[in-house]
Every structure is written in structure tokens, then in C-alpha cells.
Design brief:
It is built from five helices and four strands, in the order E-H-E-H-H-E-H-E-H. The chain has a four-stranded parallel sheet, sandwiched between helices. Strand 1, helix 1 and strand 2 form a beta-alpha-beta unit. Helix 1 crosses helix 5. The protein starts with 13 loop residues before the first strand and ends with a helix. The relative contact order is 0.20.
Length: about 130
Amino acid sequence: MSEPSGCECLSGPTLIFACSGAADVGEISDLAARKLTKDGVGKMFCLAGVGGRVGGIMDKTKAARRVLAIDGCQLDCARLTLELADIQDFSHLRITDLGMEKGKTSATLDAVAQVASQAESLLGRQVAGGK
């Protein structure tokens, strides 16, 4: 039996968790995560499954190479859900930090593209060793 050559942690998936809340910024969060999935950047994954500590979802999340939480607003529901499930090594993006206002921002293609672009940048920095 041969020894593994290098770190196996780089073989896991990139998972994206969106708050998907009821507000407009939650909708943008959800749509950006779906765009990132469609574009092959990562895979949108089930935040409710993490909150419910569903075995298979937890196992796959803990094995992920990169994890991104996208929150719509300062309540940070996605970030807190991951932290409460003892998932600590992830990048975090809050849409209101990009200048979008909760209750005042339509879920346009431009808004979704802006969030997706920022998310890709964060994931790139996570691979390079930053958060």
C-alpha cells in the first residue's frame, strides 16, 4: 500500500451556503449561490441540513476543501449556523457590506453578479491561505 502524496484536504468540494432569507438581500444571496454553482465555482449546499445536524450533510461539509457563507444582512444567519455546527474554517460574505441595503435592493442580474464576483474573490483568497 502506497503512502498518500501530499495533502488530501485539497480533494474535497467547494461548498456554498446562502442565507436565502425572506428579504431582498436574502434572495440575492440565494441567487448568487445558484449562479456560482451554475458557473462551476462550487456547489450550493443545504444550510438547513447543517442547522439540523444531518449526518451526511455534516460529513460532507467538514470534508470540504473550501466553504463560503453568504449572508444577506448583519444578522449573519449563515455564518452563525456554520459556527454553531462547529464549522470554523470558512469565508464569509455579507451583502450589506457591499453597499446593498436590506429592503431597498432589487434582486437584479447586476446585483447577483456583483455578489458572485466578490464570492469568487474570497474563495480564491481562501485557497491561497487567507480568509
